[in-house]
Each structure stands twice: as structure tokens, then as C-alpha cells.
Amino acid sequence: MKFFSSLEYFGVIFPVRALCFHQNKMMLMSNRMNQLFFLFIVLIMFSCGKQGNFELRTNEASVIGKMEFPFGDIYSESTPGSLHLNAGNNNQFWNGTKAKLIESENAYRGIKTLYYIADLTSIFPNPERGWHNRRDVDGRNGNDDRDFSDVKAAGHTLVHSYLRLDDFRNTDTIPQSYLDDMQEALDAIRFHGLKIILRPTHVWSEASSVSEDRILKHIEQLNAVISANADVICHLEAGYLGKWGEWHSGRYTELSNRSDGDTRFRIIKRILETTPNSLPIVMRYPMHIREILDELPVPEGCEPLTQVQRDRLGHHNDCFLFNEDDRGTYSRNNLWFGNQSLEQQKQYTFDLISSYGGNKLVGGETCSPAIDRIDDTQIEMSEANWTEINLNFWRDAIKMWKSRWLPASNNDPAETEFDRISRKLGYRLRLIDATFPMSVAAGDNFTISANLSNDGYAGIIKSRPVYLVFDNGNDRFNIELTSVDVRRWVSGPVSFSLQNITLPPDMEPGNYKLAMWLPDAAVSLHSQPSYSVRFANQNIWDASKGYNILTDSLIISN
Fold first, then answer.
1. What are 231-256's pLDDT values in tens digits?
2. Domains defined for the chain, CATH in brackets
3. Which of 130, 131, 144, 368 has a beta carbon 3.0–4.6 Å from 391's, enabling a disulfide?
């Protein structure tokens, strides 16, 4: 039997001399006002004629009771004291409130639901998303930028660099000095707590004629260095073919040539085979992706792409919003497997990006001082789940975004379009509430569930672990939640389902911080907070530890 002394409803405290729950019976002994109030509730439930329950919550958002009724269910919402009537499939809202159900025994067990203050306006860095900064880092012709302190100071986390192979078009072997320069650049990226996007290319603005055999050899040499430094590489742009490595205007690039499709398959397959499965590979034109994934029979002597390899292939749009078809991005013609309309090519891209349940990587740049479709920026970035874009090209296009003022919309404040893009590129995870016990014994089970919102254009692209951290200032216990896949946290509501863990038995009794820690998947980066995910909330981010604090008053007992 459990007793409770009061309840709050819409900010009104109802004194209850004895509210008793025992053997599925509810007895209320209180003043006349309370009796009339509950009579009114019961009459509403009788009118619904459905099975349900009744739940009471305190102003601390703890459920203080639940009662099964044969008519409907009323339960509390995120707003303390509010009630919601649910009658089967015919949801009825009492006084316009909404709700969510929390276990009836929460208060009795010491379980609480805590609510967190949103940060809907701040622009802050998070790994593997946002504006990328163009740099030349491979050492060619003195291009050996190693100081990225300005990138870090600007609150950005990404650098983009071409790997210029112009000097090696006539040789199968890339000199060790070039590979050493690559390594030096990647060391500098790691030192500054950043990640880099790389695109190899044999030519700049002229047509490429390098043979398939030589390309495959260069892939293996470059990817040996890339694989050894995969922890600081955000993703690869496929490159190698055509001007600027964009897969147009050069040997093997034409989609009208069926036999060249076999070469394109082998190049992509070699890139995938010689790099870790953690690295996304993005391609310039969606119809090249379609050819490889959906149209082309596996060439003789090749193995089919595995599902993991297929899921790694994303898209970089290097003429974003230029015109209706983004300067040919969505209008490749004379396809050997049958022409597709602009609408079909575009829809294929949107479907591809969310085909496995999470999002594949989408990035790129603008390509002109003017953007014909600038009014489509928000809908295009949202529908195609953009994660990153070039900050430096074209600068005039960037200035247009900085000068455009957008009104407030849903959770977005009134702001410039540049600021909205800055906040929403990739993921932006916001913690709404979390439910867990405030006191627990070392070695006992610990349960937690939460609700979040992803306010960004895309989900987290690459896998990363989620840990619950128990930190008393002297000892820190990191417990991984192995069943959680953050790649499924796409734009919109995110349900963090109930997790059950066993606490270490050697935890010293006392007060602990409970935090959620989303570090990089690479253990080598765990000690650097800049590679951990920050939530869009006020007063929960610990920049020195790289975790999000759920509470600083969790009690661990013997």
C-alpha cells in the first residue's frame, strides 16, 4: 500500500489527506473539493468506454499514482500537473494538453523524470558536421598548410583538401615524400581536434586520361595512409575521374558508355575495399551511384558490394542551387540504362540518402556568384539531409545567405539564413527529458529512458558509442549502451528506449554526476572532448569532459 499527500493539477495544489493505492483499488479521502474533482474525472472516463488508467504527477514531474479503469486513461504530460485523456484510437484532449505515459511506480521507486532547457539559438561546434574550410595540405607546390587554429577559433570542425596527383599521371608509384606530407597534414588535423574531407584528382580543369590500372594502383597507395588515419578523416569524395575529380569531362566518366561502367564499378570497389567500413564515400552524380548500386551487373572477376559497402555511398553536390538541375547534378542524359527525368533523378537521391534507416552523407558546395534557387535552400537541405558544405566557395553565394533574413519557424528563431544553416547542418540533438532513479545501490540494476529531438537537417552519419557516465569527481565509470545506434536518430523526435544496466559493485557511496557521453568511435580520440557530441541544451555541456550532464545529484549507496 502506498500513500500520497497531495497532487498538482494545472498549477493548483489539491491537499489529499490519504490517497491510497492497494490491490487495484483507489481510495481518496480529502475535502469536498477534491471529491468533486475526481467525480468529474471519473464521469469523463465513463463516457469513453475504453480500458485505461489514471495517473497523478507532482510538480517535480514524478508520477504519484496510477489506477486501472475499464473506460479510458488519463496521464500526465511534460508540463507538470497536466492531464491527457486517451480513449483507444479516438484520442481526446482535455483542455488541449498532450501527454506521455510514465511508469506508475516511479515515485515509489525514487524514479524521476527530469526536463531540460532547450538551446534553440546558439551556434556551437560539433564533430563531423557544419561548414568545411578549403585548404591545400598535400605539400604539392608548397601547399603545406598545417595551422588550422583559425578554423578552430571560428567554431568549425571540418577541413577539405584535394590530393593533387597531377605529377604522377605518368607513373604507377606515388613518391614516399608525397605520402609523408599527407601524414604530416593528418597529424596537424588531429592536433587541432578537427577532421578532414579528402578528394584525390589527377587533373584540375583539363580532361583526365589516366588509365584504370594506374588509378587502381594509386588508390591502394593513398588509401594505406588514409586507412592508418581514418580516425581524423570525416569522409572521402570518390575523385580520380574527370576535371577536379568530379566524374565529368574525362576518360571513364560518360554514363552513355556501358563498358566504362565496369571501370567505374572497379574503381569504387577498390576504394571501398582499401578503406575501413567506418568511412563514407561520396560521389558527385546520383546517376553514377544508381548505375553501381542498382543497374550494373557485377563485372566479371569482381565480388558484389556488401550491404555495408552499399550503405557507405553518399553524394556531394558541387553546384548546389545553381539552377533547376544544379548544373547537371540531376540531369545526366543519354544513360545506357535508360534516361531519367529531372524529378526522377532528384527523387532517387532523396530516397537513397535515407534508404537504410539512417542518413547517408550529403555535402558539397555552391558553384557560382549567384544562386538561382536560393529560396529553396531550407527545403533542399532538409529533404536531402545535408551534413556539410563549403564555406569558401563561392564567397558571393555565402554573402547572399548572410544577408537573407528568415522569420521564426517552429523551433527555429528569426535569424539570417547563414545562421540557420550553421545551426542545422547535420545533426543537432536536443534533450527533452530523461527518466531514471535518483538513488541506487552499487551493483544494482539502473534503468534510464529519454526523449530527444534532432533539430538538424540530418542524422549522425557515422557510428559512435553512447555511454552513461557516473562521475564523483575522483572516479569515473563509463558504461556503454551497446544496443543504441545513434545513426537512427534522424531529424525529428528521437525516442531513447528503456535501457537496463548493472552498476559496478565497487562504486564508492556518495554523490555522482550522471552524464551521457557520445565520443568518437575511434578510441584514440576519446580523450579529446572536441570529438564528442554536444546536446543543444542550456547548462548541461561539460566542455572539459566532453559529456552532457543529466543530473549532478545522483546518490550511490552501499
1. 999 999 999 999 999 999 999 999 99
2. 2-109 (no CATH), 130-424 (3.20.20), 429-557 (2.60.40)
3. 131
